[in-house]
Design brief:
single chain, 332 residues, Immunoglobulin-like, four-stranded antiparallel sheet, 18 strands, 9% helix, acrosin binding, extracellular matrix, disulfide bond, Zona_Pellucida_Domain_gp, cell membrane
């Protein structure tokens, strides 16, 4: 076998030597085509250069003293001691949390129409939106993240700049719900504030409450909402207020959908046993139960229940877009 390998190698080298040393070359017969059959190949197009911008159309990019290296780092072009925007879409992020977007007319084919007019005005507009996290429950979905959408529009005339003014109208107050019963219970929201050093925010919050004329109340997402439920016009110290269930709805009707649980398994809400099972544990921001005892300064502490909810808004069940409805609380 080794001899076969050696012979094979020698034959291969000899064959290569014969090819290299050959002096005659094979050539194809040449044929001259008639003039009407001569092929003309198109010249290749020059590569696209975003920096080929006419002097009159150049817009300064960055600071006036920008160096060529700095100009390249911010995706711009440099020539004749000027840093300018090229024929492209340029995005720049600043250290103070802002960004600059410049779209050249020549960045698309056909070119962008930057001379759009509307009743004698040149109009520029854009749309911005933010992302948000959604919590999904068995009977509804909510979010505590701010959802921001902005459609901004600028209209320019030859002599002036016009600013658009947006007016936000207040929503109507919620419809009151009343029901007859042996005991009257009310739910109200605290609005007290800490005005001195060392005060406890939870205690101060329940020192005063919103009036019926104050509703609806505007709250920022995740802002604490101080809820109090109490028995009204009763002086029996043996009465104990127990809540079985507390939930939120998007309408004054407590049976409407969607719903979001705030407190569940309310049997442990007795004043003598405040347990950790009360908050709805599928919520990332658990409802905080505030104990009410003799130190609260109330004449009948057993007539009261207090808890703190982090503000949220409902989202649509199909596309999870935030809703603009009011949020109401219901207890049972």
């Amino acid at each position: 076998m080794e001899l076969f390998k050696c012979l094979f190698a020698v034959a291969l080298v000899a064959g290569l030597y014969g090819v290299v040393s050959a002096q005659h070359y094979w050539t194809l017969p040449q044929q001259t085509l008639p003039a009407q059959h001569q092929l003309t190949l198109p010249q290749p197009e020059a590569p696209f250069d975003k920096c080929l911008v006419e002097q009159a159309d150049r817009i300064q990019c960055g600071a006036a003293d920008a160096t060529p290296d700095h100009c390249e780092n911010i995706n711009c072009c440099f020539e004749d001691d000027l840093c300018y925007y090229g024929k492209a879409v340029t995005v720049q992020c600043t250290r103070d949390g802002q960004f600059v977007v410049v779209v050249a007319r020549d960045s698309t084919l056909p070119n962008i129409d930057v001379d759009s007019e509307e009743d004698g005005y040149v109009v520029y507009e854009n749309h911005m939106s933010s992302s948000y996290e959604v919590g999904v429950g068995p009977r509804g979905s909510i979010t505590r993240d701010s959802h921001f959408e902005l459609l901004f529009q600028c209209r320019y005339s030859d002599t002036a700049v016009e600013a658009l003014v947006m007016e936000v109208n207040a929503v109507p107050p919620p419809v009151p719900v009343a029901a007859a019963g042996l005991l009257r219970v009310e739910l109200r929201l605290g609005n007290g504030q800490c005005l001195s050093n060392g005060c406890v925010e939870e205690d101060a919050a329940y020192s005063s409450f919103y009036n019926p004329a104050d509703y609806p109340i505007t709250k920022v997402l995740r802002e604490p909402v101080y809820v109090e439920v109490n028995i009204v016009a009763r002086s029996d110290a043996n009465l104990v207020l127990n809540m079985e269930h507390c939930w939120a709805t998007a309408s004054p009707n407590p049976q409407s959908m969607p719903q979001w649980d705030l407190l569940v398994d309310g049997s442990v809400l007795d004043v003598r046993s405040v347990g950790s099972r009360c908050p709805y544990h599928d919520d990332r921001y658990l409802t905080t139960v505030v104990p009410v005892d003799g130190s609260s300064g109330l004449q009948y502490p057993s007539h009261y229940k207090r808890f703190i909810v982090k503000m949220f808004t409902f989202v649509d069940q199909t596309n999870y877009s935030p809703q603009k409805d009011t949020v109401g609380f219901a207890v049972r």
